Amino acid sequence: MMLKNKKLVLIVDDDPDYLEQLKSKVSGFGFDTLTASSRKEAEALLETTKPDLNIFDLMMETQDSGFILAYKSKQKYPEVPIIIASAVTTETGITFKVETEEDKKWIKADLYIEKGIRNDQLLREINKLLKL
Amino acid sequence: MTFSLAINETDIGEIKIIPHDMEKLKILVVDDEPGIRSGIERILRNYSVGFPFLNEDFSFETIEAATGEAALEIVEKGGIDIVLLDNKLPGIQGIEVLERIKKGQFDCAVMMITSYASLDIAVKATNFGAYNFVPKPFTPQELKSAIENISKHLFLKRMTRKMNKEGKQVRFQFLSVLSHELKSPINAIEGYLRIMQEKQVGDDINDYMAMIDRSLIRIKGMRGLIMDMLDLTRLEAGNKTRNIQNISVNDIAKMAVDAVLPMAIQRNIKINFDAGEELYLLTDASELEIILNNLLSNAVKYNKEGGEVHFNIKKKNNSLIFKFEDTGIGISSENIPNLFKEFSRIKTEQTREITGSGLGLSIAKKMVDLNNGEILVDSTPGIGTTFTVVLPT
Fold first, then answer.
1. CB B104 within 8 A of CB B73
2. Do A116 and B187 touch (CB under 8 A)?
């Protein structure tokens, strides 16, 4: 009987509570997790590790830390899917979509979610991206 | 100071500082009589308009056009600040040139030169957006006065527009960051409450204590943020009326030390306060309070357990020097440039438990600036930090 290898998810968010909660949620789904609380920390981790999936917060050190991190990750590991999570879209009216090829040229992410997404929804999206 | 022209409203005006503070405004003189054109050029050649409250002087560069069509061509190329427009022209009339300039939304002010000072032309021109008139024949002084008027109007219009634009940009960025700063604790607390609601780690409430503690810490943070926001918005709106008095610095300093003592005792931190003589400062008491409270509370918050804070005030030449020295975690050199920016908080393992809105230092700095002072920081990570505030007496 083959033991299924656990997939590794890298979670990056500068809010320590949200990071803990998301980590335990994703581990609860059955994945191994790695966490970082800043873009810098995440970039260092990506140097030595290749995750199976990334979940990046949008605003960390700067308002576009998430975008920059996604760009760098795609450069290094183009096949690793990226989810960008954000909390501010409804207030500011800034929305992001990564549906069309055109969108994907600018936003190097495979999916964009709003923080507060339901657990079952999140699991569904992760499985979709990991083709599970 | 020069403004580079914003021909289309989405350009952001750029300010370059010319050493001799002289700005040249481009005036386009549109009149079919060459004598009039050269006459105006001569009058404006050595004329300059000054703002008494600014270190600004405007001089003029005259460009000439004999017809309305030629004038429009020149305006369309850009760079024209003021148009002096005669109504009676060989081709299209002045009033039509004015109409087209306004329709094209060029960033210039138009002054009509009216031959017969007839009321209907004057009204029509005003409706089309002319700023003012000068009736022919005019004396050099009459022309100069009219030009002075229109130059000042143009300057103020551009300044307001620039400030509004900057204000809008800054406000938008501020709101985006603010909404993020408020949503983060709300999301975090909600996350913990959901976990508790679903009893995700079992039935024993003791297993949820850490989450409850974290939630309370985040709530404290939000409360602090709201208080600081109120301070900041009052500042930004300029609504804070200053009550300048001869303030006893020692009294305010003692109050600040007393305010921070409970937090210091809790962490076993010793505060050494020394002010030497009786010191006074002409300022608003609340401003000094804010500066001292913010810096002292930071010295305690970011200190190590059992550490020390040395707070002293000295009079030197014509200034008061406030020094806040702590034996805390310190600040790395890469974090120093952003220290006084709004919502700038250093997020590391060490600062994880420290509450704060990220506005304290930016507010303190604004207060220091209001008092024409300066604030300096020197730090060694792991050893400690010293903040120095210098306020002129």
1. no
2. yes
Q: Which residue is listed with tokens 């999140």?
A: A122
Please report, for residues B92, B159, B190, B340, the alpha-carbon distance to residue B14 in angstroms, rounded to integers and kept in the order given.
35, 11, 45, 25
pLDDT tens figures, A57-95:
988 877 678 888 999 999 999 999 999 988 765 545 555
Indicate the average pLDDT of chain B.
83
Residue A68 CA to residue B112 CA, distance in Å, equals 54
Q: Is A89 left (phi over 0), alpha (psi -120 to 50) or beta?
A: alpha
Task: State how far the Cα of B18 lies from the Cα of B15, in Å rounded to an integer.
Answer: 10
Tally Cβ neighbours within 10 Å of residue B360.
21
Would you give the DSSP letter of residue B244? E
Q: How far is CA B96 from CA B25, B64, B68, B102, B113, in A?
A: 24, 18, 8, 10, 14
Amino acid at B393: T
Chain A CB contacts of B195 under 8 Å are: 21, 24
Nearest to B244 by CA among B391, B43, B349: B391
Question: Would you call B218 and A59 a contact, using CB atoms and an 8 Å cutoff?
Answer: no
pLDDT digits (tens, 9 = 90+) for B46-64: 898 876 555 667 889 999 9
Q: Among A18-32, A79-93, B25-39, B266-280, which is the least confidently predicted range?
A: A79-93
Query: What's the predicted TM-score (pTM) here?
Result: 0.50
The C-alpha of B76 sits at a distance from chain A's nearest C-alpha, in angstroms, of: 35
Note the pLDDT tens digit of each residue in B252-299. 999 999 988 888 998 899 999 998 889 999 999 988 998 999 999 999
Q: For residues B269 and B303, what is the distance between their CA atoms, to the nearest angstrom?
A: 8
The pLDDT of residue B390 is above 90: yes
d(CA B159, CA B218): 42
Rounded Cα distance between A12 and A37, Å, is 6
* Whole-angstrom distance, CA of residue B170 vs CA of residue A45: 34
Q: Is B142 helix (H, G, I), strand (E, B) or coil?
A: helix
Nearest by CB to residue A63, choosing from B176, B192, B218, is B176
Per-residue pLDDT tens for B200-209?
Answer: 889 999 999 9
Question: Chain A residues with CB-CB distance to B under 8 A?
Answer: 14-18, 21, 24, 28, 37-38, 59, 63, 87-88, 91-92, 94, 115-116
Q: Does residue A31 contact residue A10 with C-beta atoms inside 8 Å?
A: no
Neighbours of B93 (CB within 10 A): 16
| Inter-chain residue contact A18 with B184, CB threshold 8 Å | yes
Distance of residue B278 Cα from the nearest chain A Cα, in angstroms: 44
Q: List chain B residues with CB under 8 Å of A21.
A: 188, 191-192, 195
